[in-house]
Write a structure and sequence with these properties.
Layout lengths: L1 H15 L1 H36 L4 E5 L18 H13 L3 E7 L1 H12 L16 E6 L5 H8 L5 E6 L1 H43 L1 H9 L4 H36 L4 H4 L8 H30 L3
Antiparallel strand pairs: 1-3, 1-4, 2-3
């Protein structure tokens, strides 16, 4: 009987405040969708870092005969065979180095032609202008600075470059987008909480006669407050379901179909469905609990029992 009464009161409250309930659902859905999107964006950045950092190399470019006039570190001329052998030997001894690949000038010229053969400047480049290099794969890409410190100032070395720098701008952009999404989510969350408080306040005011009668007959505070709390929780749960639907649709539209980024950007390792599904219970839990807690706090002020 009590459960039936509570459910009937929930139905009455939702019908009386249909417009505000709809606003709560929309606000909660948008804020939770942004929250879930920010979590997925953060995980995407981590996945891409793990994937690409494992593939990038540290490049140690050696001096050639044409660098004396343009590269201050090559004023002593081209790298000698002894210097080259010593650099390779020192690299091999380092514990953080996984593998070392030596690339000749001819190989560097061939790779340059494959990548930039259509550019106007490619026709003016000759093999002897391309620097020799060591392509070093590290066990831990984060320890690039150890290699840079050890070889950047050595005779015969033109420069030491970390290929992570090429990808860092992309990662910084994605991290910025995640922070922006969190900022908008925080704003939407504040709006949702304000709507929940106002909805509970209006609902409590419109049923002040019923709650007064219940208080007179000895009903407990929790029993009187329960319909209001469950109304807010129900609206939040619907918002959470809508947010989950938006996240699923977003993954389907952006990556698999629609924009089909997985096909257009085959080199990018996108997060899978398991990552999206793992976030849905958290989104639903927040959607259910956040309005209920907000309603409980609001009732202590607006519903004196």
């Amino acid at each position: 009987m009590r459960a039936q009464f509570v459910l009937s009161e929930i139905g009455v409250g939702l019908r009386r405040n249909l417009t505000m309930t709809f606003a709560v659902v929309v606000s909660v859905a948008l804020s939770l969708a942004l929250f879930g999107g920010a979590l997925l964006m953060s995980e995407q950045v981590s996945v891409m870092k793990d994937y690409w950092y494992d593939k990038v190399n540290v490049s140690i470019f050696l001096c050639n005969k044409n660098d004396a006039a343009t590269a201050p570190k090559c004023v002593k001329g081209a790298v000698t065979g002894q210097q080259r052998d010593q650099i390779k030997a020192d690299l091999t001894k380092m514990d953080i180095v996984q593998s070392v690949h030596y690339e000749t000038s001819d190989e560097a010229f061939k790779h340059y032609k494959e990548r930039y053969g259509d550019s106007p400047i490619a026709a003016t480049i000759t093999p002897d202008q391309m620097p020799e290099s060591f392509r070093v794969k590290l066990k831990d890409p984060e320890k690039y600075q150890v290699v840079a410190t050890a070889f950047a100032g050595r005779d015969g070395v033109q420069s030491v470059q970390d290929q992570r720098d090429i990808l860092q701008n992309l990662f910084d952009l994605m991290s910025g987008m995640r922070i922006a999404a969190l900022g908008v989510m925080a704003l939407m969350l504040v709006i949702a909480l304000m709507l929940i408080v106002n909805t509970v306040r209006v609902s409590a005011f419109s049923r002040r006669r019923e709650t007064g009668i219940m208080r007179l007959v000895g009903a407990s505070s929790f029993y009187i407050q329960m319909p209001f709390i469950m109304e807010a929780a129900f609206a939040g749960l619907i918002g959470g379901v809508v947010a989950c639907t938006m996240l699923l649709f977003g993954r389907y539209f952006l990556i698999d179909h629609g924009l089909a980024l997985a096909d257009k950007m085959a080199l990018v390792n996108f997060i899978g469905w398991d990552a999206v599904l793992a976030k849905l219970p958290l989104v639903l839990a927040i959607g259910l609990l956040m309005p209920a807690v907000a309603a409980f706090i609001a009732l202590r002020k607006y519903l004196r029992v």
